[in-house]
Amino acid sequence: MPKNILITGGAGFIGSHLVRRFGTKYPNYHIVNLDNLTYAGNLENLSDIEKAPNYTFVKGDICDRALLLSLFDEHQFDTVLHCAAESHVDRSIKDPMAFIHTNVLGTANLLQVAKERWEKDYSDKLFYHISTDEVYGSLGDDGMFTEMTPYDPRSPYSASKASSDHLVRAFYHTYHLPIKISNCSNNYGPFHFPEKLIPLCINNIIHRKPLPIYGKGENVRDWLFVEDHVSAIDVIVHKGKIGETYNIGGHNEWKNIDLIRVICRIMDRKLDRPQGDSEQLITFVTDRAGHDLRYAIDATKLKEDLGWVPSLQFEEGIEKTIDWYLANGDWLQKVTSGAYTHYYDSYYGRGN
Length: 352
Ligand code: NAD
Ligand code: DAU
Description:
Blueprint: E1 4-8, H1 13-25, E2 30-35, E3 55-59, H2 65-75, E4 79-82, H3 89-94, H4 96-118, E5 126-132, H5 156-175, E6 179-184, E7 186-188, H6 197-206, E8 211-214, E9 220-225, H7 226-239, E10 245-248, E11 253-255, H8 256-270, E12 282-285, H9 300-306, H10 314-327, H11 329-337, H12 339-348
The site of nicotinamide-adenine-dinucleotide has 30 residues, from helix 1, helix 4, strand 5 and strand 7.
């Protein structure tokens, strides 16, 4: 049973759901959230839990070895849930080095510190690496990614995540560091940063701005509600086997264009606009460079070995998500205006 957990990247989209789940479901676990608050990290994602007695926030970089060593000594972590990453494919095409820095070097740094602090006694320790289905590459019309699918990353983002997965496995095989890895499909839900397809389109529909669809909108993604992702992580932490990899997904494939049309229809209904109104905002734009055609996860291992299945149907999850964005216009306004990053700069000081 974990007692002292380091969650990295806990102020981001998935990380904030992870902090909330572990912090509230397990009040006897102490959670330290280490996040350097990039543009994607937002402490408002955690305002409901920030005062919990079993929760501590530390602003810092996973590449900072001295900081990690002191945190391991101070908090005696037995578990690391490593979620921090640069996560947006389009940004990785513009600036790959930021992805190498955090996703590759940051992960290597964290692994090395965990090894140094734990190697005298690996019992009851766990280094859990949160990864993506994008490491497997791109599918054609058929087939699904299993845990045995060879890696074939094709963007700087997915290559950096594949590198980090390889490093995590290397530390297991070479040093016996107790690790687990999960590779999940596309998440959606509350607190999703509006640079990603679903929240971007929700925000643009609200403001009647164009909905930019790359290429012909034929690319397929397999969408999972974010709380189902963290419920799977919870199950794997507690019941999964050391050294194993688990794929997480919801058997919920959508072509981008079909997905956006569904969102348009729901939003027209909720915003009391004539049906077909928001679809007029759809604008086909230049395709993403190296755009992976299709992702689809086979999560049979997770279901058969650990009994996990998603709790929500997509229809319910997307309604919940849209309702959340409509009810949280302030959050959306602040993250799109960048007001929260200016606040962090003044609160923590630039470069901290
Ligand atoms: P996100 O971009 O919303 O959040 C990333 C968080 O990491 C932010 O809070 C950011 O401030 C923090 N961070 C970045 N660099 C850091 C550094 N050097 N030191 C400390 N903190 C740092 O990302 P997300 O979408 O929540 O993804 C979280 C993890 O899940 C990533 O590892 C990603 O690869 C993986 N993943 C994401 C999805 C998805 O659909 N979003 C699906 C599968 C896997
Ligand atoms: O599969 C898991 C991955 O899902 C995670 O590892 C990544 O961190 C996460 O960002 C996500 O990557 P994608 O590239 O699939 O997500 P994104 O929301 O950026 O794009 C989803 C699809 O929509 C993709 O085919 C590109 C397309 N798209 C995206 C944007 C932002 C558009 O057509 N228009 C857009 O404006």
